[in-house]
Sequence to fold (434 residues):
Amino acid sequence: MSALPSRPLRRTLLVSGVALTAAVVLAGCGRASGDSEAAADTVVGDDAATGTVEFWAAGAEGEALPAFFEEFEKENPDVTVNVTSIPESEFATKVSAAVAAGNVPDATFLLSQSQASMLATDAFATVPDGLVDGGAFFDNMWDAAQYDGAAHAVPWYTYAQAFYYRKDLADAAGVEAPATWDDYPAFAEAMQAQGVKFPIGLSVEWNEYTAQQFNDFSIQAGGSLISDDHTEWTIDTPENLAALETFTNLILDGYASPDGPTFLDTVPWFTSGQIGAYVNGPWFPSWLDEANGEGWSSENLGVALNAAGPGGSTSAIGGGSLAVFEDAKNADAAWKLVRWMSQPETQVAWYERFGNLPAVEAAWDEPVIADDPFLTVIKEAIPMASAVPAVPGWLEVSAMLGSEMERAARGQATPADVLAAAQAKADAIGTGVE
Fold:
């Protein structure tokens, strides 16, 4: 199995975009929609790219891209790609300040969770007609790139979370991963008979990460935490009550712990059998192999879709897209770089170099990905995966909601009381969208 980079910061792709959402919306600069419409008429030829392309990226991706772009520069001898690598903690401030000041690079990458709000600044050009085939990407990634009736970004990489479990212990107990919420008790009790103290590991940091997992439970219940137009929070609903009861009952019934593991403690808890399952991303098998030796995951780990509620199965999605600024000084070369990065062979090469999974669906047919049994389930999960609400208010609301959930999980308040209190507090905070 191909190893993915063991970077705890990968988790930030799921939530850190919230801060970027708030910063960009507050600092957003408006443009006439005609600018984007004109960009749609841009023709990007097949001739070589020339000049200098200024490209911004965050964190470890930004550090790895200069060497990766050497191949593009070989294919286009008269172009230079300058990568500005910005620490993830500073990326939101840097990009939003550049947008507000009108002093932007040629291109950047966008986190999928903040993409909608970023595109709403009107700072990004429409993807030129014919540059890429939108149908080549996973539908939900391509749909997320749409703004004002046209694509304003091109998907670069993607992933979803899945239900990882101790398959060796489950096989010994004669059970499979829970397919529905109703299957949780039988799975948990069978795993406890194998000596697993807490068969189900939940995100119990009681902060925005806990709220993120509750967002999954909400969608599985057929609900939502926010209205379709993103102007109102819809936390106190029957669907979300069912979701919170399911979540908290796993703890109150003794199947999960309210005290751990925290995200970075997952590997030792999982390895020791203190927990028997945990929802995580595609990097998890490599983390376990690094801790326990190559091949440990192949022998002991199973992966399945998240258990489905009345609304089906879903999990958190992560990833990123590529976008060219309306004020790019070298838009032609920037778009040619984006087109090159969107080719299946390029995305497979990036996966082999860095571990980010392709947004182009055909790239998943390459043996290095297709032959990895752990990634088969991830591919199945991506089309049904969901993001947290892409609104400025989510950062504050999610921290509050996670804290409120702890009261229910510890039996200090009923789920109904918790949702009513969270709704009132969320209404006072607002979504940040009018």
